[in-house]
Amino acid sequence: MEVLYRALFVFAFLWFITRVTGRSTLGELSTFQLLLYVTMGDLIQQSVTQQDYSLTSAVLAVGVFALLTVGLSMMNSRVRKIRPLTHGIPLLLVTNGEPLMDALRAENVSIDDLMSAARQQGIDKFRDIRLAVLEVNGRISFFLHDSDSGGDGGKSGSPDGPPVG
Asked: Is residue 91 scored above 70 in pLDDT?
């Protein structure tokens, strides 16, 4: 029974840690983050099972993690009010070509990371960006100014406006 309580505690702790460490997706993890998560996995195994290598302890620990994951998923689909707590909310990073430095600092996103994400979308100037949103999955969505709003649609490469990168 102690394995169940340990697994429950460790699951809650890991959920908290992954929320605190930021919004990186698996493909965008830094080497350090990947090493941290792999190391945490090994340490957790030891703390949950207390070096008990029995099949029963392993099944119980994995079962608790699986049930909690499924339960959390079900709650997210049924109770809208907990989604901001469990998944987070999208965050505005750029508005009308101006990076929101407080938001960038709060999410540990450097201006270089923001510029890199913009360049990957073919955006070469901040002034072209109407909105940039940090999504809950860690990706950045860019919304450009309409080309019909008078102007060149933001792709001419004119010198006004800071270049991205």
From this structure: yes
One-letter identity of residue 88: G
CATH number at residue 125: 3.30.240.20
Please report, for residues 8, 127, 129, 143, the alpha-carbon distance to residue 104 in angstroms, rounded to integers and kept in the order given: 33, 17, 16, 17
Q: pLDDT per residue over 46-70, tens digit each?
A: 667 667 666 677 677 777 877 887 8
Q: Which pLDDT score is estimated for 24?
A: 56
How confident is the model over 6-23, as pLDDT tens digits? 888 878 887 787 776 666
For position 147, what pLDDT does the model report? 64
Q: Which domain holds residue 10?
A: 2-86
In angstroms, rounded to a whole number, what is the distance separating the alpha carbons of residues 149 and 145? 8
3-state secondary structure of 159: coil
Residue 155 φ/ψ, nearest 5 degrees? -120, 15
The per-residue DSSP string of 57-95 comes to HHHHHHHHHHHHHHHHHHHHHH-GGGHHHHT---EEEEE
Q: How far apart are CA 91 and CA 107, in angstroms?
A: 9
Judging by beta carbons within 10 Å of its beta carbon (0-12, 13-18, 19+), is residue 72 exposed, middle or buried?
middle
